[in-house]
Amino acid sequence: MDISVIVPLYNEAESLPELYAWIQRVMNENKFTYEVIFVNDGSTDNSWKVIQDLKAKSANVRAIRFRRNYGKSPALFCGFERAEGEVVITMDADLQDSPDEIPELYRMVMEDGYDLVSGWKQKRYDNTFTKNIPSKIYNATARKVTGLKLHDMNCGLKAYRKEVIKNIEVYGEMHRYIPYLAKNAGYTNIGEKVVIHRKRQYGVSKFGLERFVNGYLDLFSLYFLDKFGKQPMHFFGLWGSVMFLIGFVAVVAVGAMKLIALSKGVPAPLVTDTPYFYIALTMMLLGTQMFLSGFVGELVSRSNAERNKYHIAEEI
Across the chain, what does the average pLDDT equal? Predict the structure, then answer.
């Protein structure tokens, strides 16, 4: 099979027939063999009924329905597990992504050799203050942290080599960082394509401003896991030891100052009367806690069944 198109959706019943007809036309014009996997993320409208009707009319339709709304990442994960095409395309169900982009995305993966191609909505039709400006700030931060020179990392329209989606795990709200997950798994040939962004025709956006806060937290979680996921002691142990040593040296210094003053017969305040004593004590306690956190992290990592799991690219 040439292409699997994965469409996660939540309350998009109005757009589904038009979207599938558009995908079907593009696939037939280019003589692709294909499947379209709709992942109904707990919709409360009649999206599932619409999908059932599409399935009854076309053998190319596959569908998954969640019991409740779990989010886009679990929807993509389930779609990735079931995809059979050599190239996997993901797109949103709101008709803001154009299926006409599929042939070129397929060509870039199959002929140009990209592992992943991310769409770039260079000209957007979203609200400038609630989406455009925050999106630019978010993407600038993501480029700096991940090292990937992508202008629109969270674009829903992406193309993947089949091997990529079978070797990454999308969880929580990590769908925003699939290119970074792919890079961390060893798939570094990641490209970008300017794609058409269309105005939403039906319904409303399902994502609020909280996605930017969550996005930053997820970004730094992934960065930490990439750097120290298998060696947590290298982070917690190092900085815990540094903090403990600074605190210990400070305590010794406070005590030494007290003894020097006493040896010279100079009245000196109690050690516990100086704030430096409590600051030093706090540093020692925090350092000890960080060191123990790293130790516990190492025990958890050692018991992880995937501790020595590596993605082998080829074996002769």
Answer: 85
Residue type, 286: L
Strand partners, 6: 37, 90
Domain boundaries, the chain: 3-227, 232-303
Global pTM reads 0.76
Q: In what order do the strands lie in the sheet with 61-65?
A: 61-65, 34-40, 3-9, 87-90, 158-161, 116-120, 190-194
DSSP 239-257: HHHHHHHHHHHHHHHHHHH
**pLDDT score recorded for residue 97:** 92
The predicted structure's pLDDT at residue 209 = 57
Rg (CA), the chain: 26
194: which strand partners? 120
Q: What pLDDT does 128 receive?
A: 54
The CATH H-level superfamily of 3-227 is Spore Coat Polysaccharide Biosynthesis Protein SpsA; Chain A (3.90.550.10)
Alpha-helix runs per DSSP H in the chain: 16-30, 47-57, 72-82, 102-110, 133-146, 162-165, 178-184, 210-228, 232-263, 275-303
DSSP conformation class of 265: T
pLDDT at position 208 is 54
CA distance 58 to 75: 22
3-state secondary structure of 123: coil
pLDDT at 206 over 70: no
* Biggest distance spanned by C-alpha atoms of the chain: 98
Of the pLDDT bands very low, low, confident and very high (cuts 50, 70, 90), residue 132 is: low
* pLDDT > 70? residue 312: no
Contact status, residue 148 vs residue 179, Cβ threshold 8 Å: yes
| Amino acid residing at 241 | S
Structure letter (DSSP) for residue 112: S
Measured CA to CA, the distance from residue 29 to residue 17 in angstroms comes to 18
Query: pLDDT band at residue 126, thresholds of 50, 70 and 90?
Result: low
Q: Alpha-carbon torsion 153, 156, 157, 163, what sign?
A: positive
